[in-house]
Amino acid sequence: MKIADQMHDTLKKAFSPSHLDVVDESASHAGHAGNPSGDGETHFHVVMRAPAMAGMSRVARHRAVHSALGDLVARIHALTLDLDV
Fold it and tell me: What is the CA radius of gyration of the chain?
């Protein structure tokens, strides 16, 4: 299973979001640090809208996502997050 699919499944289970996109942006970073071979699955962008994050600060939301993703975070080079309620 691709990392993007694993991330999507994990975040869906953890937050029951009303909207969730996990985009593999690795192709845009081919040859850069973290993706020197251009093989992909290294750079991701997540857009998530989850009522479960209501009342959380921006930092708390980011920490919650990193915590939910657990070991997956260590397998990637870059993760950008666009999180809201």
Answer: 13
